Amino acid sequence: MAYDDYEKVAAAIRFIRQESINQPELGEVASHLGLSPFHLQRLFLRWAGVSPKRFLQYLTSQKAKRLLRQSASLLETSDDVGLSSGSRLHDLFVVTDAVTPGEFKSGGKDLEIWWGIHPSPFGECLIAITTRGICALTFIDEYPAVALERLQKDWPSARFIHEENKTATKMQEVFAPLNADTRKPVAVLLKGTNFQLQVWQALLTIPSGQITSYGQLAKQLGTPSASRAVGTAIGANPIAWLIPCHRVLRGDGMIGGYRWGEERKLAILSQEFSSAESC
Fold it and tell me: Any idea which residues carry the catalytic annotation?
């Protein structure tokens, strides 16, 4: 049900973005999707937690700029990267491990990787896991074989095992509600350069419902002139959603790119914004 809802919501988001300058009414969006206004309103509220009209406000750069300023103020009060109280909820649930230089060079030699493809609240996913944690979580908008081939190129010497019973359990853990009383920590295994690892770790300090810009993140890392390099590292993030690269926007408040599609990025952010506002 959540997967079917996402496909419809993504189509609505796509249309709203295309027509945002004209401020489309609910009826126009519903007609484009072949739905009644009542059905679309109910679907959007159930899935995204906000109405289409409220979502349209998130698309305006002025709204995003205000959120960026608020988030920057919050992050600047942190004593150290990764230690701000506001970021701990997500950070506590993601336990990171990195491959050694030797493992990086060997491309995962002697490593077993179990993989499977499953529906998620944000579309179909390929997930790959090892005994040390999740090494890939990729949204699929193409043939699954293409996503698998890309994964195999990232780990050319590993042994791949298709095991959806094993990966289905991990998927349930990944997308479990953010509830500190019941949610289990999720381990991830990262393979990247030292700079990429620093950027991905910094992403974990951005709380749900907050956003930052490429420039702000570069400044947080102590490399204020490296916003382009930060953006490149963010684009190489192999763990969707858990490592929240979707929380980084352009400095002008525009959505910016996203490895798994800008509509998906907006859909994820709309859920997080609405959850934060309801708290």
Answer: 245
